[in-house]
Amino acid sequence: MQVDGERLTVVVPHGSTVQQALALAEVLLGELDRVQPASYAIVAADTLIQVTRITEHFEIETAVLPFERQTIRNESLPDGETRLLQPGQNGMQETTFRTVLEEGVEVSRTPIKTSVLIEPQPEIMMIGTQSAFTPVPIEGTLAYASAGNAWIMRNSSGSRRPLVTTGDLDGQVFKLSPDGDWLLFTRRESNDDEVINTLWLVSTLDPQPELIELGVENVIHFADWSPASPPYIIAYTTVESSLAAPGWQANNDLSLLYFSPYAEDVDQEILIPDNAGGQYGWWGTTFSWAPDGTSLAYASPDDLGIVMLDDPAYESMIRFNPYQTLGDWAWVPSIAWGNDGNTLFFVDHGAPIGLEGPSASPVFDLLAMTLDTESTIPLVARTGMFANPSTSPILRQGSGERAYRVAYLQSLSPLESDDSRYRLMIIDRDGSNRRELFPAEGEVGLEPQRFTWSPQGERLALIYRHDLWIVDAAAGTAQQVTGDGQAIAFDWKP
Questions:
Q1: Rg of the chain over CA atoms, in angstroms?
Q2: What is the CATH number of domain 57-123?
Q3: pTM score
């Protein structure tokens, strides 16, 4: 027997095991010690039992986390001019190592736990990229996200300032409050496999605002302010992170968050708890606030209806055949409220035009539905699946009528609209006076997207070739207002 640097001879009864031999030799084994042969093996006269002493100890080391250097392109500064927006600051990291020794000799050293004691603060340098774009007057507040940061414009597109400079905005949620005083947005989360993003707020009025975390995670489809705010109410729905495509499993829930600028905490209320949803429920449900803030319209891959706040439940109004995408995504009809509060504009999955089944039909039409009669009205045939209707604010007519217009996207290849580009169109709310707005004939079409009206309903903002543009709804003229090619989201409020 070889143990602790010595060679021992042990006489044991016939048929004894290694474990019994060790006991007779009064050799005690540590929890990690290794024995060869195994303790249950039968020993013979010439068996050599080798005991290897194994010990471990733990060490904690601290290390500096160097800060990153980031640059932000600012079109309000002259080309080439630089300004230090935020100085860099190193962080501190603590790592616990497990060291294993065999017979006093180190054989492995493995990190088993890492904790960040101080998060590094990146150095942010602003670099001027002033372009030759003619400044455009801006009514209210126009906010946009570019390269993971948020900017706001007021009075003129030539006057803009950074609002959030963390570089991690993902564009899933980017909504101004109805009064334009607050921005609701989501940030990517890269340090936790269970968290896709998190929901945040920032004041648009404070010259040095603090970011406010709302304690809500994994918002993909919907989060938006109640039109009745303030007092500020936010509705949202969530998903669970998943390793399988598309990267989430929808909860098909609906919750409200009550926010007060003067309170330290926010209150939350679950309207609809987690549920499986309907067909293709794994993809999820989206919502749209009614103009009076008393209800929300919802849309899922096979259903469209209303959720009342005073008696929350999915009240189905229209069911249709879900579109068979043959991929890891599902089509959800886009919905928009008319500003009369009694009309829903939506994209409908139409009937087959050939031998294909109903779920494979390539036909998508723009319809309107009056809620009091639940009757549907065809507006535009074969718009494409990503028509994304949007209604203007109320326009006062000379007759005193409260009218509004509907903008939507028209697919350039209506029967292949899943990968088609689109053109911005406008119609009156009854489908009449259809006009093409943007881009001009012969120019590259738009990527499918959501767009928004200006507060007075005279212009629209959209993203074209990865930059923010403003389009005049009457003349169809357009002006590019950013030039960095990294715009991902925007919103426009009074």
A1: 32
A2: 2.20.230.10
A3: 0.75
